[in-house]
Amino acid sequence: MKIKHLIKYPFSILKKLFNFLKIEFYEYKNPTNKRYESLLKTYKLCDLNKDRDYYIGILDKTLKELGYPIYNESQGMYSEHLIIFAAISETNLKIKNILEIGTFDGKTATILAKLFPNSDIKTIDLSDNDPVFINTYARKKNAKEFIKKRNTLLSRFKRINFLQINSLELSLKNKLPKQDLIWVDGAHGYPIVVSDITNAIGLMHQESILMCDDIFKRTTKYDSLYVSTAGFETLSAFRDSNILETHYFSKRIGRKFNSKYKYVSFSRLSRNKKINFFKTSS
C-alpha cells in the first residue's frame, strides 16, 4: 500500500498542477470581468433590466423559505437558470402555466412554484421503473430513497402536477394549454432534446419563454444524455428559420467553470411568427 501510495502521489501533484495551469490559461484568455459583463449584457438583451444581485436576493429569499441553501453556483445543481427564473418573476409577464421537462429531485419545480405563486406547474420525468431513469445520476443503489424524497418535495405544492411519461409522448397523448414558461432539462443529446425543443415550441405563444439547460456550443465529447451540441444545433436551426430568437447565458461564471462552454438558453418566438405544430387545449 505504501509503494502504491508513493506511485500515485506524483501523479496527483501533476494533475493538480495541470488543472491549476488550465484554469489560469482560460482566465487569461477570457477573464472574469469580461465574462461577467457579457452575462449582464445578456440579461439586458432578454429585457431583464434590474441588477443581477437584486435577482439573487429574490432567489435567496425563496430558497430560504423552502429550507434550501442560498445560491452558490458550486452548490449541487444550482446555476444561472435559477437567477433567471427569479428575474422573470420580477417582470410584468403573466406566468400562469409552467412546463418542466426533467423533474430530477423535484427542487426546481418547488422553486418555480414559490417564485410564481399563481402558476400551475406540470413537471415530467420517466417512470420510476424506466431503465434510463434507474441507471442515470447514480440512482441505481438508492432509487427508492431518491423517489421518496422527490415525491415528498413535490407534494408540498398542490399546484405541481407530476407526470411520469417519456417526453416524446408530449405531442401524442397530452393536450396541454399554451405554456408561459418552459424549462427543458431532460436528455441533452440526439434525438430527445430535438423532440423536446420542437414540442416546446408548439406549446408557445408570443409572450412565452423557452429555456434549455446544459447547452454546449462546442464539445469534444458526445453522449445522448449529458454532453452534446444537439441543443445548440437545434436552437440554431429554429433561429435560422426565423422561428426563435435565442440568447445564451453562461451556466456558471466562476474561474473553475471558465472552460466548460456550457450555457442556459433563453428563447422567444420570433415576432409575427405563429406556430401551430399540434393542437392544444384551450
Concise overview:
The chain contains ten helices and seven strands. By secondary structure, the protein is an alpha/beta fold.
Itemize the secondary structure elements and their pairings.
Layout: H1 2-29, H2 32-45, H3 52-66, H4 80-89, E1 97-101, H5 107-115, E2 120-125, H6 131-134, H7 143-154, E3 160-164, H8 170-173, E4 179-184, H9 192-202, E5 204-216, H10 230-240, E6 244-250, E7 262-269
Overview of the molecule:
This protein is 42% helix and 18% strand. It contains 10 helices and 7 strands. Strands 3-2-1-4-5-7-6 form a 7-stranded mixed beta sheet, with helices on both faces. Helix 5 links the parallel strand 1 and strand 2 (120-125). The chain starts with a helix and ends in a 13-residue tail after the last strand. The mean pLDDT is 89.
- The shape, in one word, is globular
**Radius of gyration, Cα only, in angstroms?**
20 Å
SSE string = HHHHEHEHHEHEHEHEE
Distance between the termini: 68 Å
Count of DSSP helices?
10
Percent of residues in beta strands:
15-25%
Classification by helices and strands: alpha/beta
Number of strands: 7
Q: Keywords, please?
A:
about 280 residues; 7-stranded mixed β-sheet; 10 helices; about 40% helix
